[in-house]
């Protein structure tokens, strides 16, 4: 088990080429596992900002001045880099020049420098986590600056030995090495600065002259428990980069394919005559020729179609959100005119092996819309350089009870089969020069969304049909009741007339 102080000490020992710390082999193996995911992004910071910015402990997706990019939190600076559409922008804020860092409004972080310049960063996945990390690094930077200001001699310590006595800190006649923070000092500062619930920033794998490493996701904080904890580390998810680095690419792909939980089969082993890379570029990539937003707009005739670009997640996957409004025909003239649909997509690519596409769809503006959502999953597997195979599964997830459950299940299952059949016909036109009998792409994501729209529309139709039947029954009951009342009144009227006639006869006899 590696604590926060051990993790930070190992990082500093590697970065500053200090004397080796007393840690066991398991600790080093764990550090290697954690740091395996940091190599790719480390190269980005090294290329664009150089070595002077210090070690990087996390990077985050965000926006600055409405420009999307990534924010890197290093030991000496706060960095922002973007190269959107070929327009490169770099921003470097040194921690020693940062005067104030705070949360701003509901989604942003405000950073003010000593020159009274304010920078706003927004659209974080977890801005509180970002704020804690930056403030912790700023506190460490300030303490180091104070030590350098007072010209204190370097301290020596290890994890397994007490700090040296006061006499050992006096300057000697020998030539002093460059100032290096000791493990004990760092242990004290990090334990007093970082909250116990925040965990430890992962130390990078560095050589003696290398002083920087960054994560390749929103943040790289492994399941390291607080100080002196006896709990076990949280297992890494299958899709995480750390887990993938411990396995071969083929093993990770097999584990991803074997993901259970979805019961209904949509498509089973349908082949497409194209390579895996062509498949992605043609159907799934941003601005693809046969993209989802184009299909929804041109073929399904949906309105207000919005398809965001793919954004990197914390475990190496990519995600995006698609929203649109599907017109709903109302026969009775009542009810919503459109069904608002939101779909979350998450994709993981395994080079030369396959693609995993997961989807979560929520339909709004229809009866019982808040009681269910639909989860579906696509496995696109590369067979060779010219063929891929697609298999899909889906499941209707109910979040609460509803009397329309039977209607919802029936409609979604029915519309799923119908929509897949229609989409295959469209794909035959796309791949008409290839094998027309067995072609379907991963853009089957189109299917599911429109399937769920149609399912919602069918639910409305079933409800309208039931309403009509109830109305007919009610009219029949009311009509029958009116006839019975009229018959009863006529009978009573006849009886009254007979009684009146008998009464007149009695009067005449008297």
Describe the SSE topology:
Layout: H1 4-15, H2 25-35, H3 39-49, E1 56-64, E2 67-74, E3 77-84, E4 87-94, E5 98-104, E6 108-113, E7 118-122, H4 127-149, H5 183-193, H6 241-246, H7 249-257, E8 264-272, H8 276-284, H9 292-298, E9 303-307, E10 311-312, E11 318-327, E12 338-350, E13 354-364, E14 372-384, E15 387-398, H10 405-430, H11 445-509
Helix pairs in contact: 1-5, 4-5, 10-11
Overview of the molecule:
The longest helix has 65 residues, at 445-509. A hairpin with a 2-residue loop joins strand 2 and strand 3. The protein folds into two domains: 4-157 and 180-234, PH-domain like; 250-465. By secondary structure, it is of the alpha+beta class. Strands 8, 9, 10, 11, 12, 13, 14 and 15 form an eight-stranded antiparallel beta sheet that branches. A four-stranded antiparallel beta sheet has the order 1-2-3-4. The protein has a three-stranded antiparallel beta sheet with strand order 5-6-7, with helices on one face. It has helices spanning 4-15, 25-35, 39-49, 127-149, 183-193, 241-246, 249-257, 276-284, 292-298, 405-430, 445-509; strands spanning 56-64, 67-74, 77-84, 87-94, 98-104, 108-113, 118-122, 264-272, 303-307, 311-312, 318-327, 338-350, 354-364, 372-384, 387-398. Helix 1 (4-15) crosses helix 5, helix 4 crosses helix 5 and helix 10 (405-430) packs antiparallel against helix 11. The N and C termini lie far apart (120 Å). It contains eleven helices and 15 strands. Mean pLDDT is 71; it is low at 1-27, 155-246 and 434-449. It is found in: Membrane. Residues 144-180, 193-212 are annotated as: Disordered. Keywords: Membrane, Transmembrane, Transmembrane helix. Pfam families: GRAM (PF02893), VASt (PF16016). It is a single-pass membrane protein.
